[in-house]
Amino acid sequence: MSRSLKKGPYVDEKLIVKIKKQRSGSKEIIKTWSRGCTITPEMIGFTFGVHNGKEFIPVYATEEMVGHRLGEFSPTTKFSRHGGRMQREVEAKAAETEAAKVSAVKNAPETKKP
């Protein structure tokens, strides 16, 4: 849910101070725990290390990200995969087709042009 227009977007003041200390386009990562901070046009071109609860995920701010939150680009959970018998069957079938392609390439006669 968006923040009230009367209040304006939430931007962490400490983060703004860190941005003003650095010059635009520098490769140095600005570490932050402020996942709820809204990306503003002043942040474009900087790389932020957004904390996901375990480590800092590097997020490079671009024009398309303006208006979004920093936390949207740093997932807190790791998707392993959907489990179950059907998923195993699908993965086994994919592995078989890949193996068939590899064996077909190895067994194909080489054609040499004169």
TrEMBL record:
GO molecular-function terms, A-Z: rRNA binding; structural constituent of ribosome
Assigned keywords, A-Z: Ribonucleoprotein, Ribosomal protein, RNA-binding, rRNA-binding
The UniProt record lists the keyword Nucleotide-binding: no
Keyword rRNA-binding: yes
Any one GO CC term of the record: small ribosomal subunit
Source domain of life: Bacteria
Any Pfam family: Ribosomal_S19
A single GO BP: ribosomal small subunit assembly
InterPro entries: Ribosomal_uS19 (IPR002222), Ribosomal_uS19_bac-type (IPR005732), Ribosomal_uS19_SF (IPR023575)
Region (Disordered) residue spans: 92-114
Residue stretches in coiled coil: none
PANTHER family assigned to the protein according to its UniProt record, in alphabetical order: RIBOSOMAL PROTEIN S19P FAMILY MEMBER, SMALL RIBOSOMAL SUBUNIT PROTEIN US19M
Protein family: Belongs to the universal ribosomal protein uS19 family.
UniProt function note: Protein S19 forms a complex with S13 that binds strongly to the 16S ribosomal RNA.
Protein name: Small ribosomal subunit protein uS19
Organism in which the protein naturally occurs: Candidatus Wildermuthbacteria bacterium GWA2_46_15
